[in-house]
Design a protein that fits this description.
This protein is of the alpha/beta class. It has 2 domains: 4-99, Elongation Factor Tu (Ef-tu), domain 3, CATH 2.40.30.10; 116-272, Nucleotide-binding domain of ferredoxin-NADP reductase (FNR) module (Rossmann fold), CATH 3.40.50. It has 6 helices and 16 strands. A 7-stranded antiparallel sheet has the order 4-3-7-1-2-6-5. Helix 4 (186-198) packs parallel to helix 5 (214-226). The two termini are 29 Å apart. Bound molecules: flavin-adenine dinucleotide and FE2/S2 (inorganic) cluster. Flavin-adenine dinucleotide binds at residues 38, 49, 53-56, 72-75, 77-81, 123, 126-127, 236-239, 266.
């Protein structure tokens, strides 16, 4: 798949609670992204920061011959994300993508046969949007685990509830302050389902896919290993270039050595990574 180094036209910017935003960009000539792939983008006329920022493709739709509308779900944490959130419809922005390797177990057509668990921490849900839609389209059952500090972190709960329920699955929500779903950590909810599965009731998963803070993905990897489930993680190692030139996105591997998150990932097998 060839990445397109171009400009995208901002179609829509929707500001969401707690500094989240949804940015829709029209890109001419881009090959459709696979679930788990990402793009590098910057705000319009942005001088600082100099480098583009990495964003998962949250959703995409064809809007004409060779023209794709790409949706990015973001959270403002610094100058790069702030510049993107303050874009205006009609502005042109630098755009490079799609980049990296996406989910291989689950893939473009929803790949895995059995039930899947998708586990997101806050804005990590952006990295699972395309996968959830691919599974729903392929009618592959999945449960979506959505954790955050408070209710406002679960910005796309309705959408992930709709997608998982369309496959016969369900949405599990947890918040640390108890303002939505159960009070606690989303990894505790995942472990509880897997534990119930080992006791012979429902709840066994063929695969678990995760995206979110490093600590959450490390906990998911531990739980998956404990219950003998294979899975993948979409890593968000900070990136400079996005295509293998700066060597700034190393991920340490269990077999020894390092991989580049941007070229060999961002999706890795849970068992491949030194957490
Ligand atoms: C493959 C990939 C996909 C991503 N997808 C999304 C997405 O869909 N939506 C989204 O909102 N964000 C996503 N991110 C994270 C996003 O790229 C960063 O939030 C962004 O680069 C921050 O830029 P900034 O200029 O706003 O903040 P900066 O000034 O660069 O950073 C502010 C602070 O946050 C820290 N920081 C920066 N990036 C990260 C990170 N990834 N994890 C933890 N701490 C970090 C910095 O060290 C600094 O302390 C993704 C990252 C990667 C690598
Ligand atoms: S971001 Fe530059 S090598 Fe990966």
């Amino acid at each position: 798949m060839v990445a397109l180094d171009a400009r995208g036209k901002v179609l829509e910017v929707r500001l969401l609670p707690r500094r989240h935003f949804l940015l829709r960009i029209r890109v001419d000539g881009m090959e459709p992204a696979a679930p788990g792939q990402f793009v590098m983008v910057a705000g319009a006329n942005q001088a600082e920061p100099y480098l583009r920022r990495a964003f998962s493709v949250y959703d995409q739709e064809p809007v004409g011959k060779g023209v794709v509308a790409v949706s990015l779900l973001g959270k403002v944490i610094g100058p790069g994300t702030a510049a993107l959130a303050s874009c205006l419809p009609g502005q042109d922005i630098p755009f490079l993508g799609p980049l990296g390797r996406g989910f291989r177990r689950s893939g473009r057509d929803g790949g895995c046969r059995g039930r899947a668990a998708l586990v997101a921490g806050g804005i990590g849900s952006a990295g699972l949007g395309m996968l959830a839609r691919a599974l729903a389209r392929a009618e592959r059952p999945f449960d979506f685990y959505y954790g955050g500090r408070s209710a406002d972190d679960l910005v796309e709960a309705a959408e992930f509830g709709r997608l998982s329920e369309s496959t016969g699955g369900r949405l599990f929500r947890t918040t640390e302050d108890g303002t939505a779903g159960s009070r606690g950590l989303i990894t505790e909810a995942l472990a509880a389902t897997l534990e119930a599965g080992t006791r012979g009731s429902t709840g066994a998963y063929e695969t678990v896919c995760t995206c979110g803070p490093h600590g959450l993905m490390a906990a998911v990897a531990r739980i998956a290993e404990e219950y003998g489930v294979e899975g993948e993680a979409a890593m968000e190692t900070p990136m400079g270039c996005g295509y293998g030139a700066c060597l700034g996105c190393a991920v340490e591997l269990e077999r020894g050595g390092y991989a580049l998150c941007c070229r060999h990932g961002p999706v890795f097998d849970l068992s491949e990574v030194v957490w």
